[in-house]
Amino acid sequence: MTVSRVMLCLWLIPAMTGWIVSVHAETTHPVIEKIDVDIQGGTRERQAKLLSMAVGMIQLQPGDRLDAGALNTTLSLLKQSGQFSAIHVPDPDLDAKSISLIFQLTPVVQVKRIKVTGAFPVFSQSIVRATDYRIGGPFFEDQVKKNIRAMESVMKEKGYVDAQVHIRTETAGNLEKNVFIDVEKNVPLRTVDIEIHGNRTFSDTRLKMRMKSYQLPLFFWSKGSKTVSSEVAADVKELLSFYRKKGFVDATVTSDLHTDLEQKISRLTIHIEEGPKYRVSFSGNREFSDRPLKKDLTIGSKGNRNDFGLKRSIKAIRERYEKAGYRDCEVDFTAKNGTQGQKPVRDIEILIHENTRYLVDTTLIKGVNALDEKSLSSHLNTRGKSLFYDGPLVENMPESDRQTLENIYKSQGFENTRVTADVTWKEQEDKNQNVADVVFDVTEGYRKQVTKVVFEAIPKGIDPAVFHQTIKTRENEFFLPSRVDEDRIEILTLLGEHGYIYSEVTPRVVSDGKDCKVVFQVTPDQMATVGGVWVFGNFDTKEDVILRHNTLEQGDPVSLDGFLTLQNDVRDLQCLDRVNFKAIGVQEKLDQVFFTAEVEEKNPYFLETSIGYDTSKDAYLAVSAGDRNWLGTNRRLYLNAEVSGIGYDAVLGVTDYDFLARRVYSDANIYMSEEELKNQNFGTRKYGSSLMFEKPVTQHLTLGTRFGLESREQYPTGNNTGTDPEIYAARGILSATPFVTWSSVDSYARPTRGFYFNASAGYTRDMFEDLDNFMKYQANAKYYYQPFSRLVLAFQAMYGTLQNFSSDALLPDDQLFFLGGISDVRGVGENELVVDAFGDPVGGKTQIAGSIEARIDLGGNLELPIFVDAGTLQDTPRAGRNEGVKYTIGSGLRYMTPVGPVGLLYGYRLNPETGEDSGRLHFSIGYTF
């Protein structure tokens, strides 16, 4: 391989590691006349980038004498960059009056592509993550064997005990390699037999069904599941947890795995010692029922070795009672061993003597003048009875609240505040209760004021007025200690934005009698400037795209906020999989900081296919292909096509995630489709293009607009009696639809909490006819709430209406709203909420629909949905239609997959009309909403 060299002569001064030079002989050091930086290999573009970075990192200036410390720092910076596999400085002649130094820098060999073959069903990403290899990262020949061992270890964990991994490389460019990882899985080790010993209470089948290591032999060719050691360990924990939950808290579960490597089989033996079944009862508990007290029992989750679990549980129950005001409560337990049906049992009785309850009748704070009494009361735990609160008086609670009040006054700048707490007991007829009035008497003392705020040693070039505007501690206002600490952070942040990232700020409070002066002592240290920003590992992505929003310009003061913003912006790029940032020089506190970003690009090309069935469109085949990083610009070029039982559609488009560097998401596409929605007597052909812009305003709020130009043609597919033939003419449609979206939903695959809202107002104009001239208003709201861990309540509401402004009151059917089916009113055929006398669906100019669904987690990846749907269509084109609200109710079963649920649902009509079906079965992939 030919090594290309780039030489640069600069008047700089380096020094070499290991040179021992006496400080007293400093004047005898040779002077550096020039320095040559030799980048030994790499593409021309990479050499230029490395040369620029290396030159910036050299810490000596022309005319200086040789300095070992400066050279050591230089070599350290170059090493920290991680871009060089070898750094060599030939020994100079130290006896000469002047010398020239050469930095010979060999760049690391970069990994350009990584391809894994033969590993499936083990994911390629799991294989690669076990190695040191990353796209754009370094490749070291001496690390090959270590990485092979790591990958083989991953395969063994997945059951492939004889797996062999081979690494091949090919040259992809100058100091660039493609890495090929070939995996020979061989025959996996399979668990052909699972024996369970010691299980008297539960059958083998019941226990095996809880084990991942067990494969149900549905077919005669089933050979058992792959033997995965981590799954065996997880199964042991699962069985132990199961036994404890069932009351066998002393149970032990161990396993023995016997392997036959020649036959590639293993036999798993589970040893269970059930021990006695615990039967726990409570006595003497009047305040709390058994249910909340059982939550304090830890024996069901942590066991009861040497009765430690029961002792922990007793302590937790006692604390529950103490918090409720039973400070004299006594809790103990008795244990009795016995048998039931020749099986050992252990009866545990929790003995509770609640004794006297101590309650608060009234709480009063006296002597409060400067602060708000209501606000102070909110910080007290000592409170009287209120709704859902009995007002327990816990031991030491008044004293704790007394200290709380003093601390509040101290935090508000008061001096010599004193608070006393007096508890007065009242006579009660009920001997089981003691009720008290609690009075907090406050002597506020004197509240200090700030007479002056002083900043000492502010760096030149920063206006002191900026500091006064930034902080909250102001002259002639009350002194707040917490504000001083907050102001210190604000001053450090402000200094950091001006390049003084090594600064220290020490606040001092100087008393001048009753009041005080606040002094912020600034130790600015030296100002740090930006030595440069470099990106490495980007083979396809253009550097100006990665640094599009970079504000760290070379020579400018370092801005910590700018560096943080740069990190967030680069990590948001869709074409990158990983980014590692370095700020080189901060550790050494240099006056220049060098920033590098090591990026790992995603594989730009993708091809995704899916096949399935959905009630709304029958069987379908979908294909998506494209380039995630089109022309290296972080734009997505895509082609989506789908063929289904209702037709086909194809879309070719480009997505720009940062349109015109304005942080605007945009999508432009052209499309064609032909579809005949189920149960409708017409079809639609469409050719057109659309352009969409979307801008996040806040974390949850997004604003956008969609423009469209479309040629649309409606054609008959069934009975079209009474239909105006005008609607079958080709139409040219222009549209503009602004929209707003609010979303705080926690997950789109399986939402459990959050709110979603989308509203749009679309303007449509027909260029050729007078049919598609209308405004379309639509709104959709969803809400998810999880009251319990296994229950999610989901709500959906939809509204839409058309406002026709053409001279022709007629609207084409393909622009109307239709309801019925899996996505809105289940239990009704697709689009058949309203039908005409011929049984054909009828659309309307207004739709209103809503759904309520309870999603109950059954365990084992199964979910039980129970739903109620309602919907109505209004202003239908054919008279005599029932536009009342239709209701359905139903349930079904969903199986949760890693990408979402697959469900079979049945909906039942609550108010069917004559001749309508009583219900309908639906199959869906994903949630309906």
Automatic annotation (TrEMBL):
UniProt GO cellular component terms: outer membrane
Signal sequence range: 1-25
Subcellular location: Membrane
Boundaries of every POTRA domain copy: 187-275
Classification via Pfam families: Omp85 (PF01103), POTRA (PF07244)
Major subcellular site: membrane
Keyword check for Signal: yes
Highest taxon, organism lineage: Bacteria
Protein name: BamA/TamA family outer membrane protein
